[in-house]
Amino acid sequence: MQQYKPSDEQLALFKAFGFLKLPGFLRDDMRWIETEFENVFENYEFEREQNKRAIVIQFIDQTELLCSLLDHPKIDGLLSALLGSDYGYFSSDGNLYVGDTPWHFDASIQKGVYVKLGIYLDFVGQDSGCLRVIPGSHILSDRYATLARNAAAVVPLATGPTEIVPGTIPFFALESSPGDLVAFNINILHSSFGGGARRRMLAVTAGSKPKSAEEVNQLRTMISQYERFGLETMHGTVMKGTADARRRRHLEPVAQCDDVLMGRSGSESLRTRARSCELQSEGSLVDSRVAFQMGRDPYSQPEPVPVKRRFQI
Ligand SMILES: O=C(O)CCC(=O)C(=O)O
Predict the structure, then answer these.
(1) Domain holding 221: CATH number?
(2) How far apart are CA 240 and CA 233, in angstroms?
């Protein structure tokens, strides 16, 4: 399969507005992605409390096939074009969303670019849980981003609470059918309204390789937010153990900062396979059930791993 390359127009749209919708991008892959998605959630066997969002972090790191999404010529081509060919895989999560997601932004990246690739496994429309974005709100150096964040009540106004009702905020709806992919700058203001009780979404986040001490510090701060999940490395055992040289290059920028987590989490947490936790994103508090799987770092003690590779670039 040839490596995917977005058009110059798509790149310009992403830069200016902070998102891209790619209809049918993963149409040929949805069957196995859905099977793997359901298998991961089934493996955790946790009883989902009613009306609680479920999230599995290090999601694509859980199985060899899901890991190989990073080797997919379309995903790799898209990330290379948006972030540079030396981009770093940051994290991923699988979600069973329930209802609305309030307006929020995932980060406030000042230097470099971080993008989240969102794959919704079911049709989601404007009023049935698709991603709503506020175009242009990702450019933090522009005053508009602050105004929009204030208006969306994500940042408390210095002068008092805003009177804007979240549901009336103007937005662009990224409606999505199975096989579509939405990509958005993680600074962008986003939300969803009207979704059902088992809205399936897989998200992969990657960033441009840090080019300065400031960018390294920014990455380290982002990583430190994963400490509360008991993680000792950002990437999972399977992800690292099945990585060829090309994938390893995309694990490196984040893996190099793993010391932020190492040694900070107790060994008890390493043995934890599933736990309930509160996930706090900037500006919104979401009750979540967080599950993760931990293991030995294959970099420190390599062992042969049978590789089931779906994509070879
Ligand atoms: O689909 C949703 O409800 C929100 C998704 C989201 O906020 C995210 O992936 O950062």
Answers:
(1) 2.60.120.620
(2) 10
Distance CA(131)–CA(107), nearest Å, equals 17
Q: Does residue 298 belong to any structural domain of this protein?
A: no
For the segment 52-63, the average pLDDT, to the nearest whole number, is 92
Are 104 and 282 a contacting pair, CB within 8 Å? yes
Q: For residue 289, which of 276, 301, 304, 298 has the smallest C-alpha distance?
A: 276
Q: Is residue 198 part of a domain?
A: yes
Choose the residue to mutate in 123, 191, 284 for probing ligand 1, maximizing ligand atoms within 8 Å of C-beta.
Answer: 191
Ligand 1 centroid–CA 248 distance in Å is 27
For residue 260, tell me if it sits in a domain. yes
DSSP, residue by residue, 75-119:
HHHHHHHHH-TT-EEEEEEEEEE-S-EEEE-S----SS-EEEEEE
Specify the residue for token string 């694990």.
Answer: 251
Task: Scan for tokens 């199985």, then name that residue.
Answer: 63
Q: CA 269, CA 266: separation in Å to the nearest integer? A: 6
Residue nearest to atom 7 of ligand 1 (CA): 191
Domain assignment present for residue 130? The answer is yes
User: Looking at the 3D structure of the chain, how many domains does it have?
Assistant: 1
- Residues lining ligand 1, Cβ inside 6 A: 97, 101, 106, 116, 118, 131, 190, 192, 201, 203
What is the arithmetic mean of pLDDT over 89-98? 96
Whole-model pTM: value is: 0.85
Q: pLDDT tens-digit profile of 224-259?
A: 999 888 888 999 999 999 999 999 999 999 999 999
Q: State which ligand 1 atom lies nearest to the alpha carbon of 195.
A: 3
Nearest CA to ligand 1 atom 10: 106
What pLDDT is stored for residue 168 in this prediction? 80
Q: How much is the average pLDDT of 162-189?
A: 90
Range of the domain at 50: 8-291
Task: Give me the torsion for CA of 273, 237, 187, 276, rounded to 10°.
Answer: 0
**Closest among 160, 313, 153, 155 to 249, alpha carbons compared:** 313
